[in-house]
Amino acid sequence: MGALGHDGERAGDVKAHKGVGASVRRKEDARLLAGRGRFIGDMRFPGQLEAAFLRSSLAHARIKAIHIPAHLHGRAFVHADMAGVKDILAKTGLPSFRVSAQPSLASGKVRFVGEPVVMVLAETRALAEDLCEEIEVEYEELPANVDMLRSAKEGAALIHEDWPENVFLVSATEKNFDDSVKNAPIQVTREVRTSRQCMAPLEGKGCIALFDRTVEQLTLWTSTQMPHIVRSGLAECLGLDTRKIRVVAPDVGGGFGWKGLLQPEEVCCAWASLKLDRPVKWLEDRREHLVAAANCREHHYVMTAYADEDGRLLGLEAQAHVDAGAYSVYPFSACLEGAQVVSNLPGPYNLPAYRCRTYSVCSNKPPIVPYRGVARTGVCTAMELMIDAVARAAELEPYEVRQRNLVRPDQMPFTSITGKDFDMGDYPESLRRAFAMVDHENVRARQKAGESDGRRIGLGYAVYCEQGAHGTSVYHGWGIPMVPGIESCGARLTPDGTLEVRIGSQSHGQSMETTLAQVACEVLGIDPELVNVVHGDTAMTPYSTGTWGSRSAVMAGGAVASACERLAGRIARIGAHLLQAPLEAVSVRDAQVVGPQGSVSFKEVAATWYLAPQNLPADIDPDGLDLVAGYRPTVDTGTFSYAAHACVVAVAPETGEVEILDYVIVEDGGVLLNPMVVDGQIYGGTAQGIGTALYEEMAYDEHGQPLASTLADYLLPGAGEMPDVRIAHMETPSPNTRFGQKGIGEGGAIAPPAAIGNAINDALAGLGVEMTVSPMTPRRVREAVEAARQKSSAQRLAS
Amino acid sequence: MKAARFDYLRLDDLAGATAALAEGRARPMSGGQSLGPMLNLRLARPECVVDISRLPDLRRVEARPGGILYGAALTHAEFEDGAVPDPTPGFLARVARGIAYRAVRNRGTIGGSLAHADPAADWPTALAALGARVHLVGPAGTRELAVEAFILGAFETALAPGEIITGVVVPRRSAQARFGYRKSCRKVGEFAEAMCAVLVDRQSKVHRLAIGATEARQLVIAEAGAAIDSPEIIDDILRAAGLAADPAAFRLRREVVRQAIAALATEGQPA
């Protein structure tokens, strides 16, 4: 490209090749792939102490006494030592929501296995663990509430004793639902259950707290997705002015939601660092994560779908339970998941009548935290299994039933039965393309022919839409401790004409250091290599609620564009002066100010402003080349990306083994800032979805003891379990966002349990098997096959 | 979690290592792929860990009458890579490359696997089917036992206090020998939920079958000709061994045994 024309054209190529829509290689990989990232585990400060937490060994018990040997005085701390520290409160504005107070160290009672009871500090983690062994906690064991359905019932031992029942919130909605749907010719009822999971990011949680005397600030280095929110929550708990706290997220090795909260351990370390005036570090290990942070995905549904003979849905009735664990977590609260069940269950379908009631149940398990996909993985599983059940009842192809019920493009923008504003898209087309890519007819032919190895082939589909970047108008109604508003970005042209953009959200795998530099390139024509994206530090970035809800491409992307546009105006004024041209005659492009006769580069503009101000007129705009600007989409109820997943499996009925033979995704994320990065997000999410579908499950015994404490027992999919996922993109721009981009961060994790579950059921339909519990492990498959055989032989005997 | 404090000892000679172990408060460590995690979880708390992975006696490979003696500290990877000779037509490499993950195979050892005696591990079942014998040294001198006599139960062996495995002898098999090996794992590299190894060497009239991944020692049938010819007999064998109580597990075991027998025809020969 360098051979082409003059400088302007060559610079213009930068925008074409590295701006929005280009698959630019990830800038952050220069350090991450070389092992040169800096994570909490890499950090160490002089005089640092390490924390180990003595955690509850029981799911539900009163603490009768804690025996701490005298020599541990000043090294071991209990709740009473932290007098003045407030409990973590995640209230909501929902009228009947019951508030739980979460103490940073257990107070009076323990409510789940793994709850921190005593914090012990020593020079090393190993020593701190040694000291923990010298401490004895006397408990009076109480009945554990392990199963959410029983926990919600009258007579269950109360977890928060001032509550009348173990329920945080009941959410309900009813639209157009009357008894006439009960005359529908097709009525199918199913019970669906999804198991409790851990999010298992590669890097666990961790933090280091220290008081920085040079700025009189408590500094918390922490592995978080939302430094500004942690700062607010911490200030509240510690009773400090927010200005007295700085929160920094260094490199963060995956979050998925587990790092989107204020963690009791963060409060403890911060408190201890102030108390002892020493740096205090805690690093979550894998066992702590599995035991104390099995905190997501556990749903139960009883649903009835009503349809006509053509498989057209007439109504849906559901009762759902979400196991929300022991406490309401800051800031998302215990109700987000359950309320999302109510509003998202109808999915991408045009449903005429709907009734749903959801119980957010309190249980003696770790408190629920929204995990990639949040409630949508559960609702998509439940809804999509129902669609296939309707198809079987109607004796139609599940593909066809979906086509008949999906919202059509001519209905867009569409307001769903739960009031969701679908922005734009062609849902049926995504399904058509998946049908073609997976070669539907060929799979059906292969199924008919049978397999020589005795396995059975199955084909499954799932379609979802994913609300992302939902803003003020959605969140203010919740009344939770944070409401996302206008997203800000700081932009600063540096003295050598390179660019810094500073954002308050945080990149921990989303590639924002690359994609947001591409946004700057798109607006200013500056090479992304000359752009630094600064994030994750409250001292250096404007306020933001952080990275969650598939919001950063839309919100931070929009904010970077706004700030760069504003900066372009400032650059233009200086450039116009240097060009001796009127302001309206110049434009900013290709990292320069272009006038009627000639141009000046950003480098010259910056050099003039910073290094040779004597060359500027006295009445020059004093605001300079450093600013903060804000952004909000024209409609802030969220973007709706969507996808159709299609999956072919081979199931061995005797062993229960499931092999994914093909996996196809047709996705519409609107305009993709960086298609390669989007593919990466989809692959990663799909791997997690496969985990939900087939592998991951934290089981508990009847006393609430978790049955997995290592990765030998809690199975995560690995490279060997990942199929060669084939992705195709549609690009329907969102009319509401800066570039037409939509949030896509979670979608990969939403549909796989549904698509794979439907494929397994399709494979085993001939045996009379229909599974509705995830993960669909080999044991569950074998048990279902065995049960179906016994049922059919009982029927044979009876007839 | 971090391991509790322990002393670490690495000696150059076998006599010194066995002397250090004779006191009873020490544990031998070879590849550390099982003991390592157990130390970190504080499930194993020896006062001293004696590293035997570099003892020359445990690293040797020697021809013996009728077979090959492998030092106990040879790694799974060395078998996988063909870095050591194989007295069978490729069976050892085939077993080794299915053990856990390459990172585990790089360090984990054949002797360590036998000493740990996890019923779901590969070597105990595969070596039992292959008719291997374990060589031991301890305060009372040296001795050797058949694998099925060495393993007494789940995580339970005939090792006396202070005794260690020095090696394992794998008998030579004819070029016509066939080996069916099948395991069912939840995912690649995980411990098996069911496994079966079958050896047929018609030249020497050997028909051996071993069923692993039970909650006890391997079920070894030394004269398995009848079962191999009529796999339906397996149902009775599993019932007699108390492995049929759970219908879903029974279904899996039966299928895995049948597949292992069926594999004799298809994958019994070297590739």
From TrEMBL, chain A:
Query: What EC numbers are recorded for this enzyme?
Result: 1.2.7.4
Tell me which UniProt keywords the record has, alphabetically: Molybdenum, Oxidoreductase
The GO terms describing molecular function are: anaerobic carbon-monoxide dehydrogenase activity
Q: What is this protein called?
A: Carbon-monoxide dehydrogenase large subunit
Source organism of the structure: Ancylobacter vacuolatus
Is Oxidoreductase given among the entry's keywords? yes
What Pfam families does UniProt report for this protein, alphabetically?
Answer: Ald_Xan_dh_C, MoCoBD_1, MoCoBD_2
Record carries keyword Disulfide bond: no
Query: Organism's domain of life?
Result: Bacteria
Q: Where is the composition biased (Basic and acidic residues)?
A: 1-16
Residues of the region (Disordered) are 1-22
Aldehyde oxidase/xanthine dehydrogenase a/b hammerhead domain: from which residue to which, for each copy? 34-143
Supply the Gene3D superfamilies for this chain: Aldehyde oxidase/xanthine dehydrogenase, a/b hammerhead (3.90.1170.50), Aldehyde oxidase/xanthine dehydrogenase, molybdopterin binding domain (3.30.365.10)
PANTHER family linked to this entry: ALDEHYDE OXIDASE 1-RELATED, XANTHINE DEHYDROGENASE
Automatic annotation (TrEMBL), chain B:
Domain of life, per lineage: Bacteria
UniProt keyword annotations, A-Z? FAD, Flavoprotein, Oxidoreductase
Q: Enumerate the spans annotated as FAD-binding PCMH-type domain.
A: 1-175
Q: Which positions are tagged coiled coil? A: none
Q: What is this protein called?
A: Carbon-monoxide dehydrogenase medium subunit
InterPro entries xrefs: Diverse_Substr_Oxidored, FAD-bd_PCMH, FAD-bd_PCMH-like_sf, FAD-bd_PCMH_sub1, FAD-bd_PCMH_sub2, Mopterin_DH_FAD-bd
List the EC numbers from the record.
Answer: 1.2.7.4
Origin organism is Ancylobacter vacuolatus
